[in-house]
């Protein structure tokens, strides 16, 4: 029953922030009678809220999310660095961590000039198609072969083979910076750098995103790398 409740919550996404009971049952695969009963319990607990047209995720979930210890620590430490990155570049600044074969955006400082729809806090992205994901992968012990089932194209420029991904990650390690050249969304570039712990493994990555060509994007790389290094130093415990 607990799994079915989670299935109901997981039915909501960016394109479907509000659902009727019927839609919720269809998207979750849970029987409509069970959906109706579980939804009522989730509303009472605060995980769901009623609207004029149906249901949406409730504030209780946000409250719990802010208590996740590792993510909260990184996000709190990174926020001033991201504001600096945004102010210097006038681009959208992002912070992400890895969760299995995806990245999760922990923070986003938006640029008013970025007109192309992009990511959101709490949203997810692919490891192989994002600069953030590649920056994290390049400085982790992950085996690219294990990602084979997930190397699906997001745009015509997405890396879709393990060989190409290995070559790309070697470039990232050599340069200490990763690029997304319209690989996750047409019309966007992204420049990312890993946030490293004392052992040199990536615990997160930060980036800037804009709508321009790679040649223009590359001039932001030194700034992103410098701020990522400063954030990594701030997160490391003092001896």
Walk me through this protein's architecture:
- The structure is a single chain.
- This protein has two domains: 63 residues, Winged helix-like DNA-binding domain superfamily/Winged helix DNA-binding domain (Arc Repressor Mutant, subunit A, Orthogonal Bundle); 167 residues, GAF domain (Beta-Lactamase, 2-Layer Sandwich).
- The strands form two sheets. Strands 6-5-4-9-8-7 form a six-stranded antiparallel beta sheet, with helices on both faces.
- 42% of the residues lie in helices and 20% in strands.
- It contains nine helices and nine strands.
Keywords for this structure?
single chain, 239 residues, alpha+beta, Arc Repressor Mutant, subunit A, Beta-Lactamase, six-stranded antiparallel β-sheet, three-stranded antiparallel β-sheet, 9 helices, 20% strand, globular
Please outline the helices and strands.
Layout (H helix, E strand, L loop, with lengths): L1 H9 L7 E2 L1 H8 L3 H14 L2 E3 L4 E3 L1 H7 L3 H21 L2 E8 L2 E8 L14 E3 L4 H8 L23 H14 L2 E4 L7 E8 L5 E9 L3 H4 L3 H15 L4
Antiparallel strand pairs: 1-3, 2-3, 4-5, 4-9, 5-6, 7-8, 8-9
Helix pairs in contact: 1-2, 2-3, 5-9, 6-7
Q: How much beta, percentage-wise?
A: 15-25%
CATH names the topology of the largest domain as Beta-Lactamase
The total number of structural domains is 2
Counting DSSP E segments of at least 2 residues, the number of strands comes to 9
Q: What is the gyration radius calculated from CA atoms?
A: 19 Å
Shape: globular
The assigned structural class equals alpha+beta
Largest sheet: 6 strands, antiparallel
**Helical stretch count?**
9
Which CATH-level-2 architecture of the largest domain? 2-Layer Sandwich
Poorly predicted residue ranges:
none
Give me the CATH superfamily of the largest domain: GAF domain
Query: Helix amount, in percent?
Result: 40-55%
**CATH level-1 class of the largest domain:** Alpha Beta
Rounded mean pLDDT is: 86
């Amino acid at each position: 029953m607990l799994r079915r409740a989670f299935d109901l919550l997981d039915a909501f996404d960016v394109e479907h922030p509000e659902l009727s009971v019927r839609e919720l049952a269809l998207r979750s695969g849970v029987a409509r009678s069970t959906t109706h009963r579980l939804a009522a319990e989730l509303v009472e607990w605060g995980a769901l809220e009623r609207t004029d047209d149906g249901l949406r995720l409730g504030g209780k979930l946000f409250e719990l999310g802010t208590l996740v210890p590792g993510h909260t620590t990184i996000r709190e430490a990174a926020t001033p660095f991201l504001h600096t990155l945004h102010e210097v570049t006038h681009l959208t600044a992002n912070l992400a961590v890895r969760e299995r074969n995806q990245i999760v955006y922990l923070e986003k400082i938006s640029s008013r000039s970025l007109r192309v729809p992009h990511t959101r806090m709490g949203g997810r992205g692919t490891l192989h198609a994002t600069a953030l994901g590649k920056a994290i992968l390049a400085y982790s012990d992950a085996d690219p072969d294990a990602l084979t089932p997930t190397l699906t194209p997001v745009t015509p420029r997405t890396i879709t083979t393990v060989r190409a991904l290995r070559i790309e990650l070697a470039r990232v390690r050599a340069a200490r910076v990763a690029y997304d050249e319209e690989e996750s969304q047409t019309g966007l570039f992204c420049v990312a750098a890993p946030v490293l712990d004392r052992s040199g493994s990536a615990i997160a990555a930060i980036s800037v995103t804009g709508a321009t060509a790679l040649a223009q994007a590359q001039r932001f790389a030194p700034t992103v790398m410098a701020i990522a290094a400063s954030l990594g130093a701030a997160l490391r415990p003092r001896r």
